[in-house]
Specification:
Layout: E1 6-14, H1 19-29, E2 33-41, E3 47-55, H2 58-69, E4 74-79, E5 85-96, H3 102-111, E6 115-119, E7 123-130, H4 132-142, E8 147-152, E9 156-159, H5 162-189
């Protein structure tokens, strides 16, 4: 694994003053490079969930998790680096526009399923959601028009419901087995005789 690969950690922590500062200070003191940080309320009152992306290898992420576990305010740590996850990022992009380029910009935004959230005389603000590759591709296409401002939420990540995936696969396998049994019964009841040559 490359030293520059990005690893994702999700932490559940108490929603108290100074908690985020303590977490970031601890990570900074140990020289870990945070590339993305997003925090918001969770489904549980008084608890917030933080999605943290750190540049480094498996050993780096292990150290980050160990350090986070030492903090009293942190309730739960999940290293999502090797998990099957859904990840998204929200971005607002202000793009320079004129009467001659506005329609082109809107068409490109539609292709990316982005939303136009504001249109001014000289610029358009576009909201786009997706993974990092999608956002970077969108920025690349907007660059020739002139990107005036970009703001990104940081990576949000959640483990996929693997039990649901397993149950769907099991159901499909069961359906296939039943279909094969029915076909075998049909073959035994109504055998196909080949015509003599």
């Amino acid at each position: 694994m490359s030293n520059h690969e990005e690893q994702t950690v999700v932490a559940l922590m108490y929603d108290r003053p100074g908690v985020l500062n303590r977490i970031v200070s601890m990570i900074r003191r140990r020289g870990f490079n945070i590339t993305s940080l997003a925090v918001g309320h969770s489904e549980t009152p008084e608890l917030s969930r933080m999605s943290l992306v750190v540049a480094g290898d498996a050993q780096t992420i292990e150290q980050v998790c160990k350090q986070l576990e030492k903090l009293v305010d942190v309730v739960q740590i999940n290293d999502l680096s090797n998990e099957n996850i859904v990840q998204r990022e929200l971005s607002l992009v202000r793009v320079k526009s004129t009467s001659s380029t506005r329609n082109e910009i809107i068409q490109i935004a539609n292709v990316f399923r982005a939303k136009i959230v504001d249109i001014g005389q000289n610029s358009i603000i576009i909201e786009i959601t997706g993974n990092e590759d999608k956002l970077e591709s969108f920025y690349m296409l907007m660059n020739p028009y002139g990107i005036l401002e970009i703001i990104r939420s940081g990576r949000l990540a959640m483990i996929r419901d693997t039990e649901s995936v397993k149950s769907i696969r099991k159901k499909k396998a069961e359906e296939k087995r039943k279909a094969e049994e029915e076909a075998e019964k049909e073959r035994l009841i109504n055998p196909v005789f080949e015509a003599p040559s």
